[in-house]
Amino acid sequence: MALGAARGRESIVMFTIGTGIGGAVAQDRQIVRGKGTAGQLGHITVDISGEACVCGRRGCVETTSSGTALGRHIARAGLGPDVSIDQLFARDAGGDTLARGILEAWARPLRAAIDSAVAMFAPDLVLLGGGLGAAAHRALASAPALAPWYQCPVEPAQLGDDAGVIGAGLQALAAQATVTQASSVSLLSARLDPGRHAVPTRRAVLVNGIPASGKSTVSRGIADRMGWPLLTLDTIKNPFLEALGGGDREFNRTLGRASYQAIWSVVGEAPAGTTIVVDAWFGFQPRQVLEDHLRRAGVEQTAEIWCHAPGEVLAERYRTRLDQRPAGHPGAAYIPELIELAKRAEPLRRGPLFDIDTTKPIAFDAITQWLQATIAAVP
Ligand SMILES: [Zn+2]
Hints:
Layout (H helix, E strand, L loop, with lengths): L11 E6 L3 E7 L2 E2 L30 H4 L1 H10 L8 H9 L3 H25 L3 E5 L3 H7 L14 E3 L6 H18 L21 E7 L6 H12 L3 E3 H12 L4 H21 L5 E6 L6 H10 L2 E10 L2 H11 L13 H10 L8 E5 L6 H11 L5
Parallel strand pairs: 1-4, 4-5, 6-8, 6-9, 7-8, 9-10
Antiparallel strand pairs: 1-2, 2-3
Bound molecules: zinc ion.
The site of zinc ion has 6 residues, from loops.
């Protein structure tokens, strides 16, 4: 491997622990790829009579040791959904057996999966990435490897030195996305700039503005120039509108909320260090909903690009696009509402803010320079 902690390592296994569990394997300095299931480490079986998994089998490590699974262990123990992993560690350190039980239920199957990976690949190093990688590494202290077969260093993939391996993970993810198509949502375009160091957590560029405010031109331009994956509300929503047929306004809103949630679920699966461009009208749901999504997706830094134009301009843009939108989007009747919305719509003002009047030519050079200085800078 060419970069970072991977330098000099012949063979590395990485588990990414977020909403689900993903992974990547590098052997003899080559990333294992080529088949749809290569590197699907979340589907290592740890309990053949365990819970049903999305893959159709039972007891995959994703069902026991992902972030979603941690939430289930917490709920089963009778604790509320607002208990954080840090609180669990603190309670465990204070001798709380309930917290210890939750951490063990979460970590022991992961240890079994790591042991299986070690048995298969005999890696030089096992890395734990994803939003919960560091927490999983800490929890593993209560589930040691069985000596001596499965001894292998396990480290959290969080520091700049792990850039190469995170890059490998990204490449592997992109390769899987190409094969499976199921997760084609722009992770295809995920790539790591080899000149840049990896950053410890996920970051999101929030391209915000009301309908017809010019967000899509801006977000696509940023994604192309920065090489960051792009997720838009319409990318997720439109295929469902096409497949299910248009419904009423309420159906459209429900689909919008579900698509919004889907965006953050996808972000939560991305490897640590990923920066994602998210294009949405963030004001359509309460602020707390966004904060909850960001926390669950492991996004620790955001920058906001606020796109706006006068109401009459938005109305004209909206009118000319009416025939291009799939049935189910609100029609011409929405235009007066849009003009009213333009008067009171506000940016989130969450983190650094860049303001764009989309009636003028978009100054992409200024935007990318600003992003490099605010969100892409090495911490
Ligand atoms: Zn599975």
